[in-house]
Amino acid sequence: MTVLPWRGPVRRLPPLPWVVAAIVVAWVVLAGAYAAGYGGWFGHERAGSVVAWQVMTVAMMGPSCLPVARYVAANTLVPGPAVALFLGGYLAAWTAFLGAFALADLAAHAVAEPGSGGAGAGVALALAAGWQLTPYKRTFLRACRTVDVLPAHGARARRAAGRLGLGQGAACVGSCGALMLAAMATGSVAFMAAFAVLAWLEKAAGRPLPLARPSAAVLVAAALAYVLA
Amino acid sequence: MATYTRRNAWELETEDPGNVWDPYTLAYAKAVVEMRSRADDDPTSWTYQAAMHGTYTTPPAGATWNQCQHGSWYFLPWHRMYCYWFERIVRSIVIAQGGPDDWSLPYWNYSASTQQAAMPPAFRLPTWNPDGQGEQPNPLYTTHRAQKYNDGDPLPPSVVSLEALTATNFSGPPLPGFGSVPTGWSHEPHVFGRLENIPHNQVHVQIGGNEQDPCVGGWMVDPNCAAEDPIFWLHHSNIDRLWSVWNDAGGANPDRVKAWTGYVFHFWDENGDPQTMTPGDVSSLSQLDYVYEPTAAEEGARMAAPTGRAAGGSGDAVDPGAARRNAPRLVAASENEVELTGGRTDVTVPVGGGGNDRLRAVADPADASAQHVYLNVEGLTAEHTPGTSWEVHLNLPADAPGGGGDRLVGLVSFFGFRRQLDADSHGLGPMVHTFDITDLVSGLRDRGEWDELAATVSFVPVGGDDVAEGGAVHGRPRVGRVSISTQ
Question: Which residues contact residue A11 at a Cβ distance below 8 angstroms, ignoring those fewer than 6 apart?
């Protein structure tokens, strides 16, 4: 039977241990890099940042994306390639978003200098707080939680999985992109972990949780703290 | 100790032949008028109570609207609680109006006979003459129904089948179980339990008829306006009764699962005060203040029920623990979306070598990797909800007309699909109907009638609202995929 990722006996879905392992490794790399003073790689001033963004995306968005990957694995007859293409599409959407932001930011020398703290981080956090309260956020979140019937066979299944990954990635960028940029701006692994938990709660909770206002309030408080520090 | 007895609406009315307005039905109608006169934000008003089930109207601040649970193991307990608090509100009004002080919610036992498969007469009269005040619109009547049922047509037999009472477990295996699968909050339906699918869903779509736009046209066909129709409450009283019949026959609720017993839902009492209740509070009627009068149909169902459903919940020959531990495995699926019509629609499901290996594993008693074969009708969607049900048959011969038979797997409808389109929904996946076809596939294989290359799944319309034979059906109903899986 089709098993939805968000409800019901999720434990019955294929566990995808390699995806779980990738998420754990990404967190280890992320925390290690910041602890060792290489946090700048997760910004945009390095040529290697594209790789670093994959690590950050896997770490922060991986947990909330995992149920859909398991859904893909359970609902096609080519689970291995389908899951790989789904995840590839998902990462591609995030990479495109982070790349576009980096280019825009480099051009404008504007807000959210990665890891710079201070006013830039405060502005990024405030923008993320505002985004949490918009109806667009709710629309993107709904899309981010929505999956459809997949073709089961061969090339059609693989293409559909890739498209689902791109679509889910784009929706999750809309839902969580502002949080991701705020996390980059703070340069704080603790913030990244908190944002990952928030993203997971928003996306994976079986019932809509009233998280928009509380999370916005916390983000505003954090923004003030950065600005006033 | 039970204080109230819920009675068969048809038999209430036949106690005084020729007078459809027996004291209980009359009191209900008067209470409906009173509730409809109350402000929408009054929790004891008709609008508020109906909106608790579902509505397209934006709720006022703090309102507990859009609470109904469907496609979920909370379906049965939530609706029991919902009817319980509604009944208390109505009873308080009935007593205030001088009606019977033992008033309780009647039930519509559409499975009892062909006569009772028609709506009770009082619900079909466009006008009434209460207390000799002249003809007025009957509060129990609405034009938001399929006209033929307002005209007195009986519901088709397959729509009111009590086959669900043979289910061995509340939440399966075999899936989907009597009361549907474990879920979290489930206002958007996903997998329907057997009782929820038949007769519950099918009666909803048949009575409601075609929905033109949200809540325009049929009411019962859409969860977001179904409770506006006074017959809704008698329908759910009957579903609640059937749950108790299943329990009385040995069916066990998941009383030891805290996720089920402890989930808190919110309601309002007759004084407009908030109340909370959990499935654990209503798992047995002995915890509440009402009972149902026994019926012949109930006794028949008991006799038809398989033995061995003692507490613990399984009369299965297979090991339910093993089935729970196994992951579901997709073994076959159709290629393309298909639109259902007013005629028979066949869908080919290629099986292939690997799929047949999995099916053989199910038949092998020495192989515990899979114990059930399921047919899944996935991704039901439409532009508008059609007031039609479809029989689902497996490998139905080309010249067979449908209408039951030994290849019948079950029924599907599109009840609740529109929640998928609601911008304020929490997002969800495809709506699915899952049927246990283990014995059917086994029988076909034993008789040499199983095609190793492909299965054919046929959809045959039943009792549709204005369905032309072979023609297009209102709302362009589509099925995204038909699949076979094992677990």
Answer: none
